[in-house]
Design brief:
Number of strands: 13
Distance between the termini: 50 Å
Strand order of the largest sheet: 1-2-9-6-5-3-4
Order of helices and strands: EEHEHEHEHEHEEEHHHHHHHHEEEEH
Strand content: 15-25%
Largest sheet: 7 strands, mixed
Radius of gyration: 20 Å
Bound molecules: nicotinamide-adenine-dinucleotide, zinc ion
Structural class: alpha/beta
Shape: globular
């Protein structure tokens, strides 16, 4: 079985390679040399990741790594400021490449620093969580949170390269891994029945982080995300399909103040709700919804929701970014592997859906 896959993302604002292979991170210097990216390299990571994986990046650079504190609450402008400070202290000029080594938080923060430092220097993304490997490292969305909301400050800055090494996932806590796997399931539902079937058939090997099984699964997700980004870099239309399960998912995260769910877990619930609506609207065969529900159940328990108010969750949906000019764009599935978007979902439907997940009135 192939354990090394590569693809190219040709986004309007820049094309770049995505290399997916066990051990790819150890060959990072070769990849960066091959790009012709500036040779002065600054790693941005966090202490958790760096403690576990510094050895993998030995010899990549003689510069001190720039470590930012671990956690979503540090995904803020002050942290970007710390990266600028470190770069300026080291007299980093435009001939600098930033190498982001971490999960989505490090990737988004380091990517935003790279997008803005000296009006933009290249960033190489080396994602270390499953979520980052299949989602956030590709597509060029970078940014930070504001006290008033998530991801309110940001930019589009496509990476110079993405290097995905599933061996880095061996140290990832099981819950984090599982959270990323819900996004993998999402890619299956929106664009690839074979991917969906493969996750179901290989769940045990995936959870044991078997690189031979992970590489093709991750590569398929990267291919799907890459294709969507090529078509719709700035989320005018097709990129919205990636939001399958996210309308309700984001609302569940928001009403629990981002403390109860890992993002993927909330998306797990959101996908179940979106599938239920898809069936109710006659868009999706009930059997496909049942297959999704069975897979989500097989993946393990989701955090409880029975204490949450359906009303509050639906109000949170109304405040979501996906409400454009007063219209909620809701992604439905028309069967595993395909989607459609509707804009006429009513509040009553949303309440019924949310109640259907077991929330209280
Ligand atoms: N830019 C995009 O397109 C995009 C897409 C999706 C999500 N995101 C963003 O990504 C963020 C979430 O990313 P995440 O789920 O990777 O969370 P995260 O970056 O917070 O990582 C989760 C935890 O795992 C730790 N960790 C990372 N790699 C590890 C490893 N190999 N071994 C052990 N521990 C490791 C981290 O230190 C952290 O404690 C959110 O801020 C979200 O907004 C961005
Ligand atoms: Zn997501």
């Amino acid at each position: 079985m192939s354990e090394r896959l590569g693809l190219h993302v040709r986004a309007p604002s820049g094309a770049y390679p995505v290399e997916i292979a066990g051990g790819a991170a150890r060959r990072l210097a070769t990849v960066i040399d091959g790009l012709g990216a500036p040779r002065r390299r600054f790693i941005v990571s966090n202490p958790t990741v760096w403690r576990l994986h510094a050895g993998t990046f030995e010899g990549l650079t003689s510069e001190e790594p720039i470590l930012i504190p671990d956690g979503e609450r540090f995904k803020q402008l002050a942290t970007v400021g710390r990266i600028y400070d470190a770069l300026i202290r080291a007299a980093a000029d435009r001939a600098t490449t930033i190498v982001a080594v971490g999960g989505g938080v490090v990737g988004d923060v380091a990517g935003f620093a790279a997008a803005t430092y000296l009006r933009g220097v290249p960033v190489v993304q080396v994602p270390t969580t499953l979520l980052a490997q299949v989602d956030s490292a590709i597509g060029g969305k970078v940014g930070v949170n504001h006290a008033a909301g998530k991801n309110l400050i940001g930019a589009y800055h496509q990476p110079a390269a993405v290097v995905v090494d599933p061996e880095l996932l061996s140290s990832l806590p099981r819950r984090e891994f599982r959270a990323g796997l819900y996004e993998v399931v999402k890619y299956g539902v929106i664009a690839s029945r074979p991917l969906f079937d493969q996750v179901g058939a290989r769940l045990t090997q995936l959870f044991s982080r078997d690189a031979a099984v992970l590489v093709p699964v991750i590569a398929e997700c990267c291919r799907i995300k890459g294709r969507v980004v090529e078509e719709d870099e700035r989320e005018a239309g097709p990129r919205r399909a990636l939001n399958f399960g996210h309308t309700l998912g984001h609302a569940l995260e928001a009403v629990t103040k981002y403390r109860r769910f890992r993002h993927g877990e909330a998306v797990g619930y959101g996908m179940l709700a979106a599938a239920n609506l898809s069936v109710a609207r006659g868009a999706m065969p009930a059997g496909d919804r049942d297959a999704l529900a069975a897979l989500v159940a097989q993946m393990g328990p989701l955090p409880a929701v029975s204490d949450l108010s359906a009303q509050q969750v639906v109000e949170a949906i109304g405040r979501d970014k996906k409400v454009i000019a007063g219209h909620l764009h809701f992604v439905l599935s028309t069967g595993i592997g395909a989607t459609t978007t509707v804009t006429d979902v009513t509040t009553d439907e949303l309440i019924a859906l949310t109640r259907g997940l077991g929330l209280r009135a």
